[in-house]
TrEMBL record:
Alphabetized PANTHER family for the sequence: LIPASE CLASS 3 FAMILY PROTEIN, LIPASE CLASS 3 PROTEIN-LIKE
Protein name per UniProt: Fungal lipase-type domain-containing protein
Domain (Fungal lipase-type): residue spans on this chain: 8-155
Gene Ontology BP term (one): lipid metabolic process
Species the sequence originates in: Cryomyces minteri
Top-level taxon in the UniProt lineage: Eukaryota
Biased composition (Low complexity): 187-215
Region of interest (Disordered), ranges: 186-224
Length: 299
């Protein structure tokens, strides 16, 4: 992207079985010699991949600079989706490190600025990785976009186990046996007549509930179901931006809302919609936001 004075380096996400095997090696490991804080343990699988990519990434960047020396005036943008975003985040933090030294850290000063933007990135480290507060990197950007509902953004080992249990659980207030018994009652039978009589005598089984006082999303007045979310060991990296779609406006256009959130805020939610992890969903929403930013039009 020479016309935009930006060199974009994209890290591929999970595609093969071996990639997923790396993803599920979450045991934290020390980033000693790779990041500034050796005590902030990181996902061992992603850390291993990031370390192995230092030399090839540095070689590729040197080749790009050799092809066109004017690229030294460009910014470097490291990006990735899913596991690729996790590795991109670690490589970015490695280039930002003050104590680590490698072929890649030597190239940090070769670019005007270094940025990192990721999409649907899983949790990475015990403490959230953030760019250094030094004046040197003041204008560097480190954003992580998360679609509301994307389970990978919360894919800590304990969360994944809890989510699988949630998938296997019956819907709140329902019972497979109860539903089966109800379906076996024959129309016109004495059992059905008794049920109809009970309903006529007590159409509102909850005396405290009222269609006038209960919110529209909970008309029965019953307590809403709660799923206990386990404590996560790992945290998300970067400045987190939550993307969500709002009801379409009068013009029929798509409305996307981007809200800055914290890792702590995400720890109490359950995200379980795999469709929200697809890169095309992220791309479409980012395109809507970018178009709105340029044109100033709000659907």
């Amino acid at each position: 992207m020479d016309d935009m004075n930006t060199v974009v380096f994209a890290i591929r996400g999970s595609q093969t079985f071996m990639d997923w095997a790396v993803n599920f090696r979450p045991a934290p490991a020390s980033p000693q010699g790779f990041l500034d804080d050796p005590g902030n343990l990181c996902h061992s699988g992603f850390l291993s991949v990031a370390k192995s990519m230092v030399k090839p990434v540095a070689a590729r960047l040197r080749a790009l600079l050799s092809e066109n020396p004017a690229r030294k005036n460009c910014s470097l943008l490291i990006t990735g989706h899913s596991a690729g975003g996790a590795v991109a985040s670690l490589l970015f933090m490695h280039m930002m490190a003050e104590t680590a030294r490698s072929e890649l850290t030597e190239l940090t000063s070769a670019f005007k600025r270094v940025h990192c933007v990721t999409f649907g990135t899983p949790p990475l480290s015990l403490l959230p990785l953030q760019k250094p507060a030094s004046a040197r990197h003041r204008k560097s950007l480190f954003f992580s976009f998360v679609n509301e509902g994307d389970p990978v953004a919360r894919a800590d080992k304990a969360f994944v186990r809890s989510l699988l249990s949630l998938y296997a659980s019956p819907a709140p207030g329902s019972s497979c046996i109860g539903n089966l018994s109800a379906s076996l009652i024959h129309p016109g039978s004495k059992q059905q007549q008794q049920q109809q009589q009970q309903l006529a005598n007590n159409p509102n089984p909850n005396p405290n509930s009222s269609s006038h006082t209960n919110p529209p999303n909970n008309p029965s007045g019953a307590a809403l179901p709660v799923w206990k979310v386990p404590e996560a060991k790992l945290s998300n990296a970067g400045r987190l931006v939550l993307l969500r779609e709002l009801p379409r406006g009068s013009s029929g256009g798509q409305t996307v809302l981007a809200s800055q959130v914290t890792d702590e805020m995400l720890r109490g939610v359950v995200f379980g919609d795999p469709v929200m992890h697809m890169m095309r969903v992220y791309a479409r929403r980012i395109d809507v936001l970018a178009t709105r930013a340029v044109t100033g039009k709000h659907p």
